[in-house]
């Protein structure tokens, strides 16, 4: 029986391995992590991450050929294929701080593999890593290997949170990069055989190591760039009376461009886009390519601009001050169908409003109060370290309350900011909400989910990203 071990039981390691176990009953899969609470949660009824469809997959395989454990050494030593899916945060200190990927967790995982291995292994980079990481990992493994042979493969993960199970069941492609030697090709074939249990052969792409590593960074940079491009257009739409949804539709029907990923919003979030572009920027700098580095940096700058533009719109519309006003925040996760708040634009928007002394009442169907308080007090980039290494939040933000109902959040509020596109926000009883709010009552829709015309009929003053402005807002331009 082939044995797989995955180091890192996070948003990628957990769902990916659960699907491999489901689709390959003849393979034994162990997912290991240094975080005791995370593994305990994977072994409980309440999984550590929310992902549609994940519960069913885990329930079917757990205890059969899928195991979650903190015994890293045992499972690594027994495995034929070791996936490494640990976090690769942005460095906060030293050389490359604020840009380069911090490979501390990756390096420690590689050292464990070298220390405990007693047989030859295939080591698979699942984490998103800088191009050429495989070379560094190879050096660590071969210098500590006691004669054992390792083959390194790059197999970046393209799943998106919120649709992870669907993406894993039916991927656009699986990418496997390896050495162009006979041993490298044999290792590629072994991993191909795993995916071939359910992925059609023509969707399994094989490349050299560096193309596979760089393709993941490139794909994320291209995706984020589409969002920043449409968001840049949204500002121009507001200034000219164009409607960004109409522009995006007209642009996206060009088959060379395509319709996906063209929704204007308050900005992109998630654990990957910013981190991976910063990493790309750093790699360009290190390779003496400042123009290329500047080009990609601009994608992040537009994202920051979009978030501060939104905050300024809120404050300037509400008579240039939100001091002591209650603002309801609907949605805190970085997108719908996930409880993940890493790099969510809600953090910057909330901090911006708190900076103007607003009182916030936050409701998100999947995010806990503890997480929100943590996010609002944590330093930039600290979020991407394992939970037990994150600083404890010393104080809670007193002007913030977290509630479990949209009606409770909006009661007596002066304004509402919609920051995540949860489906339930489309069908709230806005008439009831309007009646319970202070007047004039404002809605700032950062995801274009509400029917602005209907809300205007009720009496709301509505701001929707990239849409023709309400006459009220026209006189109050958002200054950035
Ligand atoms: P995560 O933070 O949810 O999970 C990483 C896990 O690794 C944590 O549970 C941590 O405790 C564990 N870990 C760290 N060092 C360890 C060690 N030495 N031994 C054992 N466990 C260790 O991170 P996530 O989101 O799963 O991301 C992992 C990688 O996958 C990152 O490189 C990320 O860029 C990439 N990725 C993430 C995607 C996403 O949507 N979250 C999508 C595609 C790639």
Kindly describe this structure.
The chain has helices at about 15-25, 35-40, 55-60, 70-80, 105-115, 135-145, 165-170, 180-195, 210-240, 245-250, 275-285, 290-315, 345-355, 370-375, 405-410, 430-435, 450-460, 470-475, and strands at about 5, 30, 65-70, 80-85, 120-125, 150-155, 175-180, 205-210, 325-330, 360-365, 400, 415-420, 440-445, 460-465. The strands form three sheets. Strands 3-2-1-4-5-6 form a six-stranded parallel β-sheet, sandwiched between helices. The chain has a six-stranded parallel β-sheet with strand order 11-10-9-12-13-14, with helices on both faces. The protein has 18 helices and 14 strands. The mean pLDDT is about 95. With about 475 residues, the chain is α/β, with parallel strands linked by helices. Helix 5 links the parallel strand 4 and strand 5. About 40% of the residues lie in helices and about 15% in strands. 1,4-dihydronicotinamide adenine dinucleotide (NAI) binds near residues 9, 35, 72, 88 and 127. This is UDP-glucose 6-dehydrogenase. Keywords: NAD, Oxidoreductase. Pathway: Nucleotide-sugar biosynthesis; UDP-alpha-D-glucuronate biosynthesis; UDP-alpha-D-glucuronate from UDP-alpha-D-glucose: step 1/1. It catalyses: UDP-alpha-D-glucose + 2 NAD(+) + H2O = UDP-alpha-D-glucuronate + 2 NADH + 3 H(+). It is an enzyme of class 1 (oxidoreductase).
């Amino acid at each position: 029986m082939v044995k797989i071990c995955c180091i890192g039981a996070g948003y990628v390691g957990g769902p990916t391995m659960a699907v491999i176990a489901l689709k390959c009953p003849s393979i034994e899969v162990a997912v290991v992590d240094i975080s005791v609470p995370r593994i305990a949660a994977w072994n409980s009824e309440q999984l550590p991450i929310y992902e549609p469809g994940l519960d069913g997959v885990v329930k079917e395989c757990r205890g059969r050929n899928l195991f979650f454990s903190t015994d890293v050494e045992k499972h690594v030593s027994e495995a034929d294929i070791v996936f490494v899916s640990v976090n690769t945060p942005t460095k906060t200190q030293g050389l490359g701080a604020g840009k380069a990927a911090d490979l501390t967790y990756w390096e420690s995982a590689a050292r464990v593999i070298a220390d405990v291995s007693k047989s030859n292994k295939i080591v698979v980079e699942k984490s998103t890593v800088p191009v050429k990481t495989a070379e560094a990992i190879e050096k660590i493994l071969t210098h500590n290997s006691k004669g054992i042979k390792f083959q390194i493969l790059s197999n970046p993960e393209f799943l998106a949170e919120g649709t992870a199970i669907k993406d894993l069941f039916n991927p656009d492609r699986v990418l496997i990069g390896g050495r162009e030697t006979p041993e490298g090709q044999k290792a590629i074939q072994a991993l191909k055989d795993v995916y071939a249990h359910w992925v059609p052969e023509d969707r399994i792409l094989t490349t050299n190591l560096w193309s596979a590593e760089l393709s993941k960074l490139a794909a994320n940079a291209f995706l984020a760039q589409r969002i920043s491009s449409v968001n840049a257009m949204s500002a121009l739409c507001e200034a000219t009376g164009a409607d960004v949804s109409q522009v995006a539709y007209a642009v996206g029907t060009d088959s060379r461009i395509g319709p996906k990923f063209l929704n204007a919003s308050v900005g992109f979030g998630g654990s990957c886009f910013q981190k991976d572009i910063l990493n790309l920027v750093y790699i360009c700098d290190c390779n003496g390519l400042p123009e290329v580095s500047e080009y990609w940096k601009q994608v992040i700058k537009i994202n920051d601009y979009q978030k501060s533009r939104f905050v300024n719109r809120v404050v300037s519309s509400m008579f240039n001050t939100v001091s002591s006003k209650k603002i309801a925040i609907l949605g805190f996760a970085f997108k719908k169908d996930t409880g993940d708040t890493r790099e969510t634009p809600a953090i910057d928007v909330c901090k911006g409003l708190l900076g103007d002394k607003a009182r916030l009442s936050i409701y998100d169907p999947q995010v806990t109060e503890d997480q929100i308080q943590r996010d609002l007090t944590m330093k930039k980039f600290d979020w991407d370290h394992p939970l037990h290494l994150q600083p404890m939040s010393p104080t809670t933000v007193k002007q913030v309350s977290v509630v479990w109902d949209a009606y409770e959040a909006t009661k007596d509020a002066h304004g509402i900011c919609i920051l995540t596109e949860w489906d339930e926000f489309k069908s709230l009883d806005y008439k009831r909400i309007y009646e319970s709010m202070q007047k004039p009552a404002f809605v700032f829709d950062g995801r274009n989910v509400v029917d602005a015309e209907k809300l205007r009929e009720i009496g709301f003053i509505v701001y929707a990203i990239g849409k023709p402005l309400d006459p009220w807002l026209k006189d109050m331009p958002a200054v950035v």
